[in-house]
Amino acid sequence: MTQSNTVSSSVEVAADPDLAFAVFTDEIDLWWVRGPINFFDAARAVGMRCEPGVGGRLLEVYDDSTGDVLELARITAWEPGVRLAWSSSVDDVEVEIRFDPTAVGTRVRVDATIPPKSEDRGGTAWVRTVPSFLGAWFARRDHAPRVPQERGRLAVEVHYDRPAETARWLVAAFGLNSVMPLPDAETPYLWIEFLVGDASLILLSAEGVSEGAPTHVPWIHVDDLDAHLARAKAHGAVIVEDIQQHGYRAYVAEDPEGHRWTIAQARPTMT
Q: Which stretches in the chain have pLDDT values below 50?
């Protein structure tokens, strides 16, 4: 018989279970990290929201004035200080969050279950995001402003033969802070992201990069991607990859000396 597949993670936070639950649900737009791959449509997303109670929705918000949102999940259990659960609306994944008291606070445990013969299309992402995103927010919550931390409009993408190993070295040697937990050297991982101030440093694998192709690629986020592409073409830019949607919306171009640039659509909240 085919078995369900459950993946889990946890993080310990310095708060009692009632507060941990309230922060998880009420402050989701503060602890959720804004980034190119952290939304289904990063070009339009302005925030995250958790509606309270059974039947409430987890939402990726695009335009509050028109009610333009993406429903990520429906709440199936709402037990403040104890348990939160939902059914994913983007796939068939079931997620349960438990808030267990510990000697120093609360262990927030995430279990995401993929039913038999079902596909994970993003529903298990909470297993990866909650420990780093929520844990980092609790670490700075007492002194941080109560506004979402937006990203800057300049980022850098760097390709390495051993990105996971390099990422751990950057943490140890340079003190960089990764957005997500770092993978081990044996784990294939396509995206490792650091936040430096309000700028992103993105580590990708060099596998598949053609010989002689640039390994360092600046990113620029712009207000009107289509107009920017037209302007780049008019001035002779070589378009390596036309506009595509990867969660973020972007195109890739080469300048006259062969350096590559990724031009991405900025979110409405980016300054």
A: 1
**Which residue intervals of the chain bear CATH 3.30.530.20?**
5-140
**pTM for the structure as a whole:** 0.88
In 3D space, the residue among 198, 214, 222 whose CA is nearest the CA of residue 157 turns out to be 214
Quick one: DSSP state of residue 266?
P
Closest CA to 264 of 7, 17, 45, 32: 45
Q: What is the assigned CATH class of domain 154-265?
A: alpha beta
Q: Provide φ and ψ at 171, rounded to 5°.
A: -65, -45
Beta-bridge mates of residue 101: 106
Q: Identify the burial level of 63 via C-beta atoms within 10 angstroms of its C-beta, where 0-12 means exposed, 13-18 middle and 19 or more buried.
A: exposed
- Determine the Cα–Cα distance for residues 87 and 89; give it in Å rounded to an integer: 6
Tokens in use for 117?
């013969």
Q: Let me know: does 206 contact 215? Beta carbons within 8 Å.
A: yes
Q: Which CATH superfamily is domain 5-140 in?
A: START domain (3.30.530.20)
| Tens digits of residue pLDDT in 7-22 | 999 999 999 999 999 9
Task: Please enumerate in sequence order all residues whose Cβ is within 8 A of that of 63, keeping only pairs 6 or more positions apart, or say none.
Answer: 44, 46
b/e sequence 150-187, b meaning 16+ C-beta within 10 Å? ebebebbbbbbeebbeebbebeeeeeeebbbebbeeee
What are the start and end residues of each CATH 3.10.180.10 domain in the chain?
154-265
CA distances from 224 to 69, 247, 263, 264 (A): 21, 16, 10, 9
**pLDDT (0 to 100) of residue 177:** 87
Reported as half-sphere exposure (CB side, CA atoms, 13 A), residue 163 has a value of 23
Strands 57-63 and 260-265: unpaired
